[in-house]
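Backbone-to-sequence.
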């Protein structure tokens, strides 16, 4: 069996209904995993794509702005597929406003989804991995703003900088148990979160000028790195944050 195979594995992916999360779900199914997708609305399109690929998919609906549903998500995954091997914390939100006007609600809402929920869902997944034995994989979806300050997105920057930190912290404590925790930092991707930037001709042009690859990324660009970090090919990687950015950070 290839070291990149996910045969016999069960993965839980948040934000599974569109964009990056959908692409990861499909890639995991194609690599042989059974996939549990979690999102605020139905993942019917993702389910159909996985069905066509011959995979198995369980779609769950939950509001990840609260930690209240998290234990039930892990429980449903295990009840349905018998175990859990991979967690991808992809769900996220962004709020845009000038720093001088940024509201407490826009701060709290973003930190809740992008950081608090990620930590407590990872904690629950790690407990499941430990109870099963054999380790597991946690993959956090970070951002260019894990490295940079950004403009008009202060709570998003804070959350993604914090996500880089907790990725390393979890890796430090859990690697000895065979649980590898790593992150992928997507560059400027064609997703719902970048719609405002792509619709602004001046801002979009400025961004494209800086990307050596000369284009916006696509969700499919994340599929390979996500499969690699979920597979045994990455067993000696822990605490890494991998940019998938068309060369943005190298510029």
């Amino acid at each position: 069996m290839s070291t990149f195979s996910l045969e016999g594995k069960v993965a839980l992916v948040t934000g599974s209904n569109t964009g990056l999360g959908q692409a990861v779900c499909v890639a995991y199914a194609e690599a042989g995993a059974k996939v549990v997708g979690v999102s605020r609305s139905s993942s019917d399109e993702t389910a159909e794509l996985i069905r066509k690929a011959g995979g198995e998919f369980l779609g769950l609906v939950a509001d990840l702005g609260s930690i209240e549903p998290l234990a039930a998500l892990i429980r449903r995954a295990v009840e349905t597929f018998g175990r859990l091997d991979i967690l991808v914390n992809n769900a996220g939100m962004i709020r845009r406003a000038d720093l001088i006007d940024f509201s407490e609600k826009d701060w709290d809402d973003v930190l809740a989804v992008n950081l608090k929920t990620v930590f407590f869902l990872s904690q629950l997944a790690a407990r499941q991995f430990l109870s099963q034995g054999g380790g597991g994989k946690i993959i956090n979806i970070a951002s260019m703003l894990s490295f940079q300050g950004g403009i008009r997105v202060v709570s998003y920057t804070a959350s993604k900088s914090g996500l880089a930190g907790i990725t390393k912290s979890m890796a430090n404590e859990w690697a000895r148990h065979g649980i590898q925790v790593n992150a992928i930092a997507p560059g400027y991707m064609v997703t719902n979160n970048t719609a405002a930037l792509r619709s602004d001709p001046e801002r979009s042009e400025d961004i494209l000028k800086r990307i050596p690859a000369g284009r916006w990324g696509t969700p499919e660009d994340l599929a390979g790195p996500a499969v690699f970090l979920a597979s045994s090919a990455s067993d000696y990687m822990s605490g890494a944050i991998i940019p998938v950015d068309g060369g943005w950070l190298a510029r």
